[in-house]
Design a protein that fits this description.
This protein is α/β, with parallel strands linked by helices. It is built from 19 helices and 17 strands. The strands form 2 sheets. The protein has a 15-stranded mixed β-sheet that branches. The chain has a two-stranded antiparallel ribbon with strand order 16-17.
């Protein structure tokens, strides 16, 4: 898979690039060699990114020419060979660090920690607004901690016209030392002259391909999907070459073993997972979104499970885990509990986690109406050390882990295939919605939480009846299955699943999966806390409370235009650019002016205007909360009706 590279020195196989398309062609041939039938290329639209080079020259303190290799983000920047630039260091790249400093036409060097502080798009856009030629980011922990020479790459989540690159910590430390020496000499700013040769370009509305092959089913019109993405940063050994090899390897094992599935098994290598659309918060998982919402919109309603794989040849923790949707959690727990774990790789065994997270393609599959699984990979030190760096290579390969995942997921796929109906249980997601509800806050705001609990409890009882009916149907001898009826019932079950995703799945501003009322609920708690502090005249802790209210943490560090750009591109952008994030964030509380006002206050100053502003914000969030609860009451009623409708299909016989 690494034969085709966007950047000859670093690798990269980016969305819509020639390297990605050529790799897709190779995967077509590999699927055919594995024995898969009906191998096809599904054309999808993406914003393409070609990153060809980013090289910097400078003279060290001994007058020797130093050459360093930079990484890049999905932005536009092209020089005419090596061009001279001033490179200036500005700390973390916040608005305050530009005060009285002219960076027009210069390269701005900053340190960021994307895991604990802010994403790359904020300091990049701040630099752009100040007229910088480009921003160069160094990871200050968070990611790429394995070695100081590690480069890091992430999705930009910002506009392509604000250029950005990455530098290793080792190169940064040498440059920073040189800047310090020059500051002690003729200069007063941390700045040096460099030569820069770069070529990175985003081209809107291009195309690439998702690659699919099949093992035809013998009884059912339903399908089981195996997916992994084939775009990558650097070599992408774990992320996600090993996973692509794994889904083809599992399919080949089934075919060579003579296995005849009841349901058609579809193997899908997905393009453009790391990034695929410009200037949106939801710029990853583009290939999966285009596949199930555009290229194959008939899959939702017919695919009973998607097994998505990420970084599968490495033990990320002492305990292995499968992450799945709420609705598959009970089935998954029983399956995991029956597995005999091999010795030596996971001393703490295996567990089941839920719900699906937004890190990978399985979230997109899930909200489309396809119940999803993924091998859990987001915990453990790999993400902080190797992930999205040039150190994600064959040195992190763990053969016994890889072998176990082949065997475990092969068994799991066969277990799901052996069932006539998808073993969905809607009780757990309904229970989760109840557990997330704050009844004290309902009483404080006047929201009708009691009615919601009553309606949800009725839905849970109906879901329990349906789950038992599905279990009994699936417990029949395989030879006695009525497959025609099973396909009809399956379509209805998947329709309920799709509605549960539509009604109950929302996101917060950090891309965490939440229930619909939780955003306003969390904001109300934080506003209550902030108002309490202001009543006592305590400004600092009041400001600290704002950090958890939507995206207002960015109001503290970046200027107004930065804050507004990355708010409005969620609240006001066209739905086709929001993709899988569309409609998942409904409300926003803008505290930018209040933050600025309070930061200027001194002890003893009047806070009356700020108290009124907070009260107004609380009233808005209270109204949002009440409407969210009303919405959930209607949604649960509709889900109950749908669940009972499916139950009646079993009673007809």
């Amino acid at each position: 898979m690494e034969q085709e590279k966007t950047n000859p020195a670093l690798g990269y196989r980016t969305a819509g690039s020639l390297a990605e398309r050529n790799t897709g062609d190779m995967l077509c041939e590999e699927m055919k060699k594995a024995g898969l039938a009906q191998v096809e290329k599904d054309r999808i639209t993406v914003d393409a990114w070609e990153f060809k080079k980013a090289v910097m020259h400078y003279q060290d303190k001994d007058g020797q020419l130093r050459k360093i290799q930079l990484g890049a983000y999905q932005t536009d920047f092209k020089t005419d060979g090596f061009e001279k630039f001033e490179l200036i260091y500005l700390g973390k790249g916040t608005a305050a660090e530009y005060q009285d400093i002219d960076v027009k036409g210069k390269l701005v060097l900053v340190e960021i920690n994307q895991r604990e502080e802010w994403w790359i798009n904020y300091p990049v856009y701040q630099a752009y607004l100040k007229g910088a030629a480009a921003l160069i980011a160094v990871q200050s922990r968070g990611y790429a901690q394995v070695d100081d020479t590690a480069l890091n790459a992430q999705d930009i989540a910002g506009p392509s016209f604000a250029p950005a690159f990455s530098m290793s910590r080792a190169d940064f430390l040498e440059i920073r030392e040189l800047m310090q020496e020059k500051m002690e000499g003729e200069r007063k700013l941390p700045e040096i002259t460099v030569e820069f040769d770069a070529d990175t370009q985003v081209i809107k509305d291009q195309h690439t391909y998702n690659i699919i092959g099949r093992i035809p089913g013998t009884c059912s019109d339903s399908m089981i999907l195996l997916s992994a993405h084939y775009d990558s940063y650097f070599e992408g050994f774990q992320d996600d070459n090993a996973a692509v090899a794994m889904i083809i390897g599992i399919a080949r094992a089934l075919i060579r073993g003579g296995y005849k599935p009841y349901h058609t098994i579809v193997v899908c290598a997905l393009a453009a997972e790391e990034w695929g659309i410009s200037d949106t918060k939801y710029d990853w998982s583009t290939g999966a979104y285009r596949q199930v919402f555009e290229a194959r919109p008939d899959w939702p309603g017919h695919v009973i499970a998607d097994f998505n794989f990420e970084l599968p040849a490495h033990a990320h923790s002492t305990r292995d885990a499968v992450r799945c949707t709420y609705e598959y959690a009970d089935f998954m727990r029983k399956f995991v509990d029956a597995i005999q774990m091999p010795e030596g790789i996971y001393p703490d065994g295996m567990t089941t986690l839920y719900p699906i997270e937004t890190w990978s393609d399985d979230f997109t599959m899930s909200i489309s109406g396809i119940p999803s699984f993924v091998n859990d990979f987001s915990g453990g030190p790999f993400m902080e050390n190797y992930y999205h760096s040039q150190y994600d290579n064959q040195d992190v390969y763990e053969e016994e882990v890889y072998k176990f995942h082949h065997e475990f997921y092969l068994r799991l796929i066969m277990a799901v295939d052996s069932l006539a109906l998808p073993p969905l249980d809607f009780g757990r997601v309904l229970a989760g919605s109840i557990e997330s509800l704050d009844m004290d806050l309902c009483m404080q705001t006047g929201a009708n939480g009691a009615l919601l609990l009553e309606k949800t409890e009725k839905a849970r009882k109906a879901a329990a009846v349906l789950a038992e009916q599905v279990r009994r149907f699936n417990s029949l001898p395989t030879e006695s299955y009525d497959w025609k009826k099973a396909d009809i019932v399956t379509e209805k079950l998947l329709a309920v699943f799709k509605k549960s995703q539509d009604y109950l799945v929302r996101l917060d501003w950090d891309d965490n999966v939440i229930f619909p009322q939780q955003a306003a609920q969390n904001n109300l708690h934080a506003l209550n806390e902030a108002m309490g502090f202001l009543e006592k005249g305590e400004i600092a802790p009041a400001l600290e409370s704002f950090y958890s209210i939507d995206n207002n943490c960015y109001a503290f560090q970046f200027e107004r235009d930065v804050f507004y750009h990355f708010t409005e591109y969620i609240m006001k952008q066209s739905p086709d650019r929001l993709m899988w994030g569309k409609g998942r964030i409904i409300h926003h509380e803008n505290l930018y002016d209040l933050v600025k006002s309070l930061k200027e206050k001194k002890s003893g100053d009047s806070l009356e205007r700020e108290r009124r502003s907070l009260k107004e914000a609380w009233e808005r969030q209270k109204n949002y909360y009440m409407k969210d609860i009303e919405y959930l009451i209607r949604a649960v009623e509709k889900l109950t009706d749908m669940i009972r409708e499916v139950s009646r299909m079993f009673e007809e016989d």
